[in-house]
Amino acid sequence: MFDLATLKRDWRSFTAYERFEQLVTRVIMLFLSVIILYSLVLIVMELFNGFRLGQEFIEKELLQDTFGSIFTVLILLEFNHSIALALAKRMGIIQARIVVLLAILVVARKIILLDFKTATFENLLGIGGVALALGLLYWLIGGKPSPHHTSTLPQE
Fold first, then answer.
1. For the chain, the helix, strand and coil percentages under 3-state DSSP, each to the nearest 5
2. What domain range is 31 assigned to?
3. Which of 58, 54, 48, 149 is nearest to 101 (CA)?
4. Same domain, 74 and 101
């Protein structure tokens, strides 16, 4: 994805806008990578602090916070992967299906971390409506698995 030899070879064939898009996208990926690394360091620190608490770490709120942080890193990784894949396939950076999938992940994170004891009926109704709308939107834009969005594992 960061193959500099391919980038150098293709650079001459790019239009001015494609060059601009390549540069901006790589800077965004660098920023996302820094955020992911920073978040990972915070998660490690949070885990070490949690382990020092012993049995108290098993409390629902502490585990939820840790899980929420991990889920956030996974969402950031998926976002970064989607951008890298778009660069590699020379497709437009903003893909509606990918944006909707990321939004679904964010809503799923919200639902998983929701404290149902304190959530109001309106909160639940609103989150349910957003989840339903995103699911419907995903279906409307052709929510089948993208042939371009594959596993990051090497293919043989």
1. 75, 0, 25
2. 13-93
3. 149
4. no
